[in-house]
Amino acid sequence: MSRKSYPNVNAANQYARDVVRGKIVACQFVIQACQRHLDDLMAEKSKSFRYRFDKDLAERAAKFIQLLPHTKGEWAFKRMPITLEPWQLFVICCAFGWVNKGTRLRRFREVYTEIPRKNGKSAISAGVALYCFACDNEFGAEVYSGATTEKQAWEVFRPARLMCKRTPMLTEAFGIEVNASNMNRPEDGARFEPLIGNPGDGSSPHCA
Question: Membrane-spanning residues where (predicted)?
Answer without folding.
Answer: none
